[in-house]
Write a structure and sequence with these properties.
By secondary structure, this protein is an alpha/beta fold. The chain has helices at 11-17, 19-27, 45-48, 61-77, 86-89, 112-123, 138-141, 161-181, 186-209, 213-219, 234-249, 289-301, 335-353, and strands at 31-32, 35-36, 53-58, 81-85, 100-106, 127-132, 145-148, 225-230, 252-257, 274-278, 305-311, 323-327. The chain contains 13 helices and twelve strands. The protein has a five-stranded parallel beta sheet with strand order 4-3-5-6-7, with helices on both faces. It binds 6-O-phosphono-alpha-D-glucopyranose (G6P). This is Glutamine--fructose-6-phosphate aminotransferase [isomerizing].
Length: 371
């Protein structure tokens, strides 16, 4: 009912507005004095010391959160991370042993493909940690340990606040593993914890500043195809932005790694093609910013209409972008957790502009409990 939506036009609008709170609640009690304390992992504490490999399994949006987590866990904890769709994982005879930590991610905790992969991993001797948003759901009950995301109940079929909370949970896990392995100094951990603590207010600012997205969506209501480009942590965000348009607005949308552009996707660019580009920070030590700006120039020269998501003060994108959505300054690993919010809003606004049911898209279920 309208009352449950707390005055919002849809559950999805309400849930996007709760993204900052989802972040704050997911770190609550898990960070203290510049350190991460994940007592959630106590049941697997001994075996965690031995972990030499992480495999993340999930479906849909949760799998994209997993890709994001891969960048953070590898960079901080120096443990190799693979991310695999749960329904592929179980049928390909994966190599697992007691030193493999399998991390399942599921908002509902009931997705059948993910549940079956969790059971399979445990049968093969791996330990399973689950990241879940639903207390007492089946997947956490079948796991060795659980990190609950505290995003609160998510009703809209397309996942929004749960995605961001899953990213935060994976970052907490990465910092916990880095602490165990000694791969980061206490000072380096404290810097990342400060970023985590600053995330919720920055996300609020991002959402407040992105009100122009509704106009953009109205202007694009007849669009038939949208591309999303991102690099490094911007890549899973490009995938997530595209998934939202498929799910909500029934538009053909694809996310690409920006470096892959010249290996195929650039052939899709014709005049008027709309391309969202998640632009890395000019302060990124990997110097990816000029590479992505040159991708923008290449597609612009072929007539693309570019909507850039870029950090405040980044002027290099201005000459080439038709629209710029701004995000506050953050370190590179934290930018995607800001950049995704305007994309969630855009998917919702485009569906609304097309007169579609934002909360209940056709053919989809909130939790898929069949294989
Ligand atoms: C369904 C939903 C998606 C969700 C996926 C995984 O397909 O429509 O929004 O990302 O399931 O759901 P889970 O509950 O396992 O995170």
């Amino acid at each position: 009912s309208a009352a449950d939506k707390g005055g919002w036009s849809s559950f999805m609008a309400k849930e996007i507005s709760e993204e900052p709170e989802a972040v704050a609640k997911t770190i609550l009690g898990r960070v203290h004095d510049g350190a991460v304390t994940l007592t959630d992992l106590d049941p697997i504490a001994e075996r965690l010391q031995q972990v030499d490999r992480v495999i993340v399994i999930a479906c849909g949006t949760a799998a994209y959160a997993g890709i994001l987590g891969k960048y953070a866990i590898e960079q901080w904890a120096r443990v190799p991370v693979e991310v695999e769709l749960a329904h592929e994982f179980r049928y390909r005879d994966p190599v697992l042993d007691s030193r493999t930590l399998v991390v399942s991610i599921s908002q509902s905790g009931e997705t059948m493909d993910t549940l079956m992969a969790v059971k399979y991993a445990r049968e093969q001797g791996a330990q399973v940690l689950s990241i879940c948003n639903t207390q007492g759901a089946t997947i956490p009950r079948e796991s060795d340990a659980v990190i609950y995301t505290h995003a609160g109940p998510e009703v809209a079929v397309a996942s929004t606040k749960a995605f961001i909370a899953q990213g935060v949970a994976l970052y907490l896990l990465g910092l916990h593993l880095a602490t165990l392995k000694g791969s980061l100094t206490a000072e380096q951990i404290a810097e990342q914890v400060a970023e985590l603590e600053g995330l919720a207010p920055k996300l609020q600012q991002t959402i407040d500043d992105a009100s122009g997205v509704a106009e953009l969506a109205k202007w694009m209501a007849d669009t038939r195809s949208v591309l999303f480009l991102g690099r490094h942590v911007g890549y899973p965000i490009a995938l997530e932005g595209a998934l939202k348009l498929k799910e909500l607005a029934y538009i053909h949308a694809e996310g690409f790694a920006a470096g892959e552009l010249k290996h195929g996707p650039i052939a899709l660019i014709e005049p008027g093609q709309i391309v969202f580009v998640i632009v890395p920070s000019p302060r990124d030590p990997r110097s990816l910013h000029p590479k992505v700006v040159s991708n923008i120039q290449e597609i612009r020269a072929r007539g693309a209409r570019v909507i850039a998501i870029a950090e405040e003060g980044d002027a290099a994108v201005l000459p080439f972008a038709d629209e710029v959505l701004r995000i506050p300054l953050a370190t590179p690993l934290f930018e995607p957790l800001l950049a995704v919010a305007p994309l969630h809003m855009f998917g919702m606004e485009l569906a609304a502009a097309k007169g579609l049911d934002v909360d209940q898209p056709r053919n989809l279920a909130k939790s898929v409990t069949v294989e």
